Amino acid sequence: MDMKEASAMTEASGLVSEQGFDRRPIESTPQDFAIRCAERLRKVTIEAPLQSLFVAFLLGIWIARRG
Predict the structure, then answer these.
(1) Cβ atoms of 66 and 26 closer than 8 Å
(2) Domain residues of the chain, as ranges?
């Protein structure tokens, strides 16, 4: 995946890009925590091999159907 594709995915998802993310040390709010989690999830997803994402997807479906 090249940078254009990654950028397009970020724009489509509505997540804040790394360049626009303000990393000032301020009081942590639930919204800040959610933004940090979403950013980390985006990075991990971009770097992960497709096979592991597929396995995680199937595992999620399996767990959801059990509950």
Answers:
(1) no
(2) 3-66
